[in-house]
Amino acid sequence: xxxxxxxSKQHPDIQQLAxxxxxxxxxxxxxxxxxxxxxxxxxADRRPNEVSNEMNERLAELEMATALSLFAAVEAAxxxxxxxxxxxxxxxxxxxxxxxxxxxxxxxVSLEDEIFEIWRxxxxxxxxxxxxxRSAFSFRHWLAxxxxxxxxxxxxxxxxxxxxxxxxxxxxxxxxxxxx
Amino acid sequence: MPKVYTKEFEEFxxxxxxxxxxxxxxxxxxxxxxWLAHLDSLYEKVESFLKKYKDEGSIGIEYKETExxxxxxxxxxxxxxxxxxxxxxxxxxxxxxRLIGSKGRVDVDxxxxxxxxxxxxxxxxxxxxxxxxRIIDPKEKAQPEIENEKKIEWAWKIATPPPALQYIDLNAExxxxxxxxxxxA
Lengths: 180, 185
Prior knowledge:
heterodimer; A: 180 residues; mainly alpha; 7 helices; 67% helix; B: 185 residues; alpha+beta; 3 helices; 8 strands; elongated
């Protein structure tokens, strides 16, 4: 039997990530605005569109970094749930399927191919959202592995990734962790 | 294989079979046309909200053509709208129609903030899902996975930023408030 995982309780929370994003985006916009005390010094001899292009680059980078953290939050939620269901030894077919998987692979399971698949097979109402999660995780891999190839799938933005993460967290009966 | 598992599996297969609903093919050309018509109606609405100021000459409105690429829809032209108020420019940029939880989205970008206009069910107050995922109980009778098939009447709404994620009805008052929010520090 694989060893039990000791949970860190440091997994990201999507609401906190949203606050982080809003705070940083507002700070970036202020930093690039004429209201910033050092604006004239920092952007001396620059054209307004150069300044706004630079700001948009920073905001785009922030969007991608936050989207990646949101994907990590979704992954953590499903993996924590998977392990909790294995440890709790409940008798429903989904928990049994997770335990079988755990016996074979422990924590080294694929989120998209194994965990999502078990959810899809053993639940009602999950087909559509799992399809959307799988598509979105292609974008996650592109982000996580350095964005060095031209993606053949649609790009997601922060708002789309947040909406999907929020939908997943609110529609699946996931076993969470008490952070206290 | 123990008999209990075989029986359970048979029940499971029955459920999956009854829940497998063939999805009708999607007419993507029609989807794109619908989306572009909704986009035109949004711009008309915004123009009507700003008519008084535009007629006075205190606000300028201009459109630019750009391209959008979306899965299944391909590349197609759309218009962005720019509202010029003094030195401040606020741009309405269409994001697309193949979105999670809405039929369309237009980003509103101002010098101090960004907001989103979304095309959603006119009765919706937030994007929170109505479908709850349920673990199959072997004792319950098979129920196909059917979502509510009610005819949706689409409406443009203002989406508040995460984590609140609420929809606010789009009217002159809420739109002018939005313009001020993205344009003021």
